[in-house]
Amino acid sequence: MVNAYMMQVMMPLNYLGYVYREIRQSLVDMGEMFDLLGQPAEITDKPDAPDLQVEGGRIQLDNVHFSYEPDRPILQGISLTLEAGQTLAIVGPSGSGKSTIGRLLFRFYDVEKGALLIDGQDVRDVTQDSLHRSIGVVPQDTVLFNDTIYYNIAYGRPDASQEEIIAAAKAARIHDFVSALPNGYDTTVGERGLKLSGGEKQRVGIARTLLKNPPILLLDEATSALDSQTERDIQESLKAMGQGRSVMTIAHRLSTVVDADQILVLQQGKIAERGTHSELLQQAGLYAQMWQHQLDTPGVSPSSDHLSVNRNSDNV
Ligand SMILES: Nc1ncnc2c1ncn2[C@@H]1O[C@H](COP(=O)(O)OP(=O)(O)O)[C@@H](O)[C@H]1O
Ligand SMILES: [Mg+2]
Predict the structure, then answer these.
(1) What helix, strand, coil percent values describe the chain, rounded to 5?
(2) What is the pLDDT of residue 237?
(3) Which of 42, 66, 91, 100 to mutate to test the pocket of ligand 1 (most atoms within 8 A of CB)?
């Protein structure tokens, strides 16, 4: 009997200890969360900053210097102009600072020296909200939410109608795939989109960006995680998406940039070469070397139609 009483007393006490530990831990977590929320943002809007007014989407970098850490410069005097409606490609070895230019455009960081202008307005003088609304990004790896395909596309503009979402999916060439699924647009994509293949995920990302319909487009190695066939398919969607917009495209595979109005070769934070594809080939510099290297490497070779374009221009 004594034993039974003891048990009955001990069990709740034991449980109380458990609850006490849980509450303590939760309080600690909450404290950390509030600390995080209390962190002042490094990048803030100026008081009374106006919204960005995009007319054509002309982007200008004027002698931009930038470093993440004080003693390691990343960008050292980058100047470039992307005319409204044109396509500018940035290529170069990994770590040369290509993505950093995109981050600066989005104003995740402020430039150290120089300026970054969109249609003549310094990105530091306008609201971040309007800036982020004007630029659409297709990153290398699109992040999807563990929700339906419909939700993930609609995330580009939550107030879009169903027709608009389906139109965006069609333009991104994913509509047929989605319609063929048993649950259609209500299919859940799984944690971070793991139930979709890389190409499908990327197309959902493109549909999302199309729905957002931004005047400026930033493609950061949007197709480098894909096989060549999928890349070619998606390249079409991307090309269609670029119509009438300013496009800054960062690319790993040179075959994807041959049509760009201007190609910049970035090397160790500086622009080593610039020009069109055929101009750069004629210069026989770094770009020509990279091009030759990709031709020689099986698996990443540019598609055959680009090859013939290349030969023709050589003959001329
Ligand atoms: N948040 C960061 N903090 C410190 N260094 C960074 C950060 N992000 C990138 N870097 C460094 O900046 C350099 C350029 O990065 P990035 O622009 O991403 O190169 P890539 O040309 O491959 O896109 C790299 O050497 C990288 O290590
Ligand atoms: Mg990068």
Answers:
(1) 45, 20, 35
(2) 78
(3) 100
